[in-house]
Design a protein that fits this description.
homodimer; alpha/beta; Rossmann fold; Rna Polymerase Sigma Factor, Chain: A; 15 helices; 46% helix; globular
Chain lengths: 387, 387
């Protein structure tokens, strides 16, 4: 029996994690969970599970829930998140938080000897150098939940890192893959939220459309697998069946494949190194999937990928800036304040104005994050004012 | 430094093995080799290497070579093959013999504690139950050299056999893949020898065209990986880029990919568990390989696959009969004595007339092999006489 805690239990990763735990009650116990403001979904979870600790975002919900569930202990706010991520009996913490908020709970979890099933890529993108150090020091396992990194992680099973030639991350190309930049100038939020293959949260769906997501994954892969950026490739694979690959020194490519279903890498992160049957998973049917296609990524069509590589190679605080600028820009788009392509422009301008700090500390990272967000908002206001 | 010996050094697998050893002189020593009658190629090998023992097929060549190379020890015949396969300092024996002749040397090698890089699938197909027992008893490694089984072997790296759902063997479909049975009725030997993707020996190229080869591989996979026939699938994959796959319990598929080049699995069998760079190997270029295609195998189009599954499920001596009947039938076709489709008919009739012996001993296997060959030849003569 493995004891699991979930950060962000009402999100896309969190709710799919709940489904997996619910399908495998003989294997997992739900220790502690955090949710943001989706109290209705929390109530649904509490009809299925009785976790020992529940964290909500604000005091108001905390007060309501405390009297509603007298048998469950509640907590709230950032301190509450830390309590969830360090819950004593927990073996693995699933970090399904979205955005930079995921960083500090990951750090706390590692420092308390927890294994991490990590979906929150911002943790690695902004503080990969610090996380890697702490993982080593506290001897915990960090297992990626992202389908691409889970695929790479699986392709590395039984292999030696030193034999890697390159990582090949596959990308669906997002829902506007077959459109030109001219054609996507005026797309609506609704149009941008239709992902062809994966069912994911709003922010990550937009990131998939701009391919900023793939950019973040490139940076994440660099840190997770200790591979130079020069040895990381991205290719468009519109079917999202091959989730990523490793080319080894002897030119052998190992690929991990399956139907696009986030529950699969989530479950693997929990059962690793074992694999278990799950009645909800659909096997690939080569009678239906008769063709897998590949094409190169055009950096002009997808400047976010190029910017991510550039930021990664610059290193230090540049990846934090890429990530924070992207988060703020996507927020502005989702709030219908900027057109789709301005996401890229805002990131570009922000990265351009940043002076890189080498090996930033956690404090510096958090500072840069704040400054970057302010910079993006001010940039937006300036542009708006001049129109 | 690993000491290697090669059975069948002048064949397709043998000569490619020689190339690999020649490219990696810092890693391998060539201990002992056998060749059949290709003495010219043997001389070429001896201009590159000075093995400690060389076996030829017949006494005549033995006498000539002894005086030609006074510094090299020679031997000949079946006893000579046994000497090669048990050469004292050898770590791994590459068995690149073609046909049933490969069986006894493999047994001798295992009994003498040698690891086997096995290309001779007849060894496993006819005596899989005996080989598996001996491998366990003598605690040696048998690493498949066939691209399909090497792929499965690699997909199993770091995984647990108990988590396998099914094996998916890929098949090019051979050079007549896009033709109907009607269209291949009168094909010539030359036409049948043109394999679209792989450069291999004549017998195996014909086997690839009838897909008897895939049938043998199904049986081999059953024994090598201890998987029931019901859990082995074959799919047509015309590009031969994915060399085979495993579907695990959690529906994850691991696939091993690369350019079709037998040198790759041969080298892997020698370097396992490491992988090494080889300047002769071409990496996959997804700029060129833009599409991978799959289609089901039609058992009516390729009856040899169905017959192999049937023989495998019958078990015991049936797989020996399938293999020996196929060998003789292919020989008759290559000698231009029977039309292409009669290969299948001869195998079918022979299998149909056989009474299966459960758990045959080595002696019984060798007997059945002889009887089967005689049966096929007599069948051919009878048919010929009645025409």
């Amino acid at each position: 029996m493995k004891n699991i805690s979930i950060l962000g239990a009402s999100g896309s990763i969190g709710s799919q994690s709940i489904e997996i735990l619910n399908n495998n009650r003989d294997k997992f116990t739900l220790d502690a969970i955090s949710v943001g403001e989706n109290i209705d979904y929390l109530r649904k979870i509490l009809s299925l599970f009785t976790p020992k600790l529940v964290c909500v975002k604000n005091k108001n919900h905390f007060d309501i829930l405390k009297s509603e569930y007298p048998n469950i202990r509640f907590t709230y706010g950032l301190e509450g998140l830390f309590e969830i991520s360090t819950f004593p009996s927990t073996h693995t913490v699933i970090n399904g938080l979205v955005g930079n908020i995921g960083l500090m709970p990951t750090i706390h979890a590692i420092e308390n000897g927890k294994n991490i099933a990590l979906a929150n890529k911002e943790t690695i993108v902004t503080a990969g150098h610090i996380i890697n150090e702490k993982i080593k020091k506290h001897n915990v396992k960090l297992i990626p939940v992202d389908s691409e990194h889970s695929a790479i992680f699986q392709c590395l099973n039984g292999e030696n890192k030193k034999d890697i030639n390159k990582l090949i991350l596959t990308a669906s190309g997002g829902c506007f893959r077959d459109k030109t930049r001219e054609e996507i100038k005026n797309v609506t939020v609704e149009e941008a939220l239709k992902h062809p293959n994966w069912s994911m949260g709003a922010k990550i769906t937009i990131d998939s459309t701009t391919m900023a997501n793939k950019g973040l994954e490139v940076i994440e892969a660099h840190f997770l697998f200790d591979i130079p950026y020069e040895n990381i490739n991205v290719i468009i694979h519109k079917e999202s069946i091959i989730h990523s690959m490793i080319e080894f020194k002897d030119t052998t490519i190992m690929a991990q494949m399956g139907m696009p279903d986030m529950k699969n890498p989530i479950q693997y992160a929990l059962t690793y190194p074992d694999r278990i049957f799950n009645k909800d998973f659909s096997p690939l049917d080569f009678g239906k999937i008769t063709s897998l296609n590949f094409s190169p990524v055009d950096f002009n069509r997808y400047p976010c990928v190029k910017m991510a590589f550039d930021a990664g190679k610059l290193g230090g605080s540049a990846t934090t800036v890429f990530n924070s600028a992207n988060e703020e820009a996507v927020k502005l788009f989702l709030e219908r304040k900027i057109p789709f392509l301005s996401i890229e422009t805002l990131i570009y301008e922000t990265l351009n104005s940043h002076s890189v700090i080498k090996n930033p500390s956690l404090d510096e990272i958090l500072n840069i994050d704040r400054e970057t967000r302010n910079f993006v908002i001010n940039l937006y206001k300036t542009i708006k004012a001049t129109h």
